[in-house]
Amino acid sequence: MGSDDLFQKRKAKTASDLARKKVQRDSYERVLIVCEGEKTEPNYFKELVDCLELNNANVEIDGSCGSSPRSVVKYAKKRYAAEKKDGNEYDKVYCVFDKDTHDSYTAALDEIKKSNPNTTFQVANSVPCFEYWLLLHFEYTTRPYIGNGIKSACANIIDDLKRYIPDYEKGSTDIYSKISNETEQAIAYSKRALEQANAGNTDNPTTHIFELVEYLQNLNL
Fold first, then answer.
1. CATH fold of the domain at 26-217
2. pLDDT tens across 110-139, in order?
3. Burial of 9 by CB count in 10 Å (0-12 exposed, 13-18 middle, 19+ buried)?
4. Spacing of C-alpha 46 from chain mean position
5. How far apart are CA 118 and CA 116, in angstroms?
6. In this predicted model, what pLDDT tens digit does every residue of 88-105 receive, in sequence order?
7. 128 CB-near residues (< 8 Å, 6+ apart)
8. Which uninterrupted H or E stretch holds 221?
9. Looking at residues 173-185, what average pLDDT do you find?
């Protein structure tokens, strides 16, 4: 078989694969959610997407990018560029990460602000960590969380969360199903806490996860 024939076959296969991907997708936006955690956040969003009956061809969730905010943004941009090159680009790319004790947190936020196109790349960040969003399903609190030398700030939030979910562990696969009935309360509490934090010129504690959740809730309406 000549090299030209082989090239044409590969080109046809690529076009066929791309067409099949597009056929499988629904008409609403295509979204990539890149998470800092390999299990906790991806598991939560996968459950949420299933509950909302969103097409997995439209909403992709990826937690294989490393644990630092900068690595999340870098990986998200790489995925976006690759899909755009194939003519199958994402309409929205959400980067989900925590402030916690990460050195690259501020740099990651700045990089997202400078992203091109700037309407595509979004951030759903939490301070100090994702578990604050989970805690807001049960109680409203704006008490700052800090490490005390024995436990990290996030570990202290998890202690509070375990008052409501005693068996909670990072990487749980059923966390959304346990708290889904309180989602609207968590959204309301998140907005209220963010307003209070802004008024007090602080970010501890805050979470923007609610913005991504609301986006997904309205994605196929």
1. Rossmann fold (3.40.50)
2. 999 999 888 999 999 999 999 999 999 999
3. exposed
4. 10
5. 5
6. 999 999 999 999 989 999
7. 98, 99, 100, 145, 152, 153, 154, 157, 204, 205
8. none
9. 96
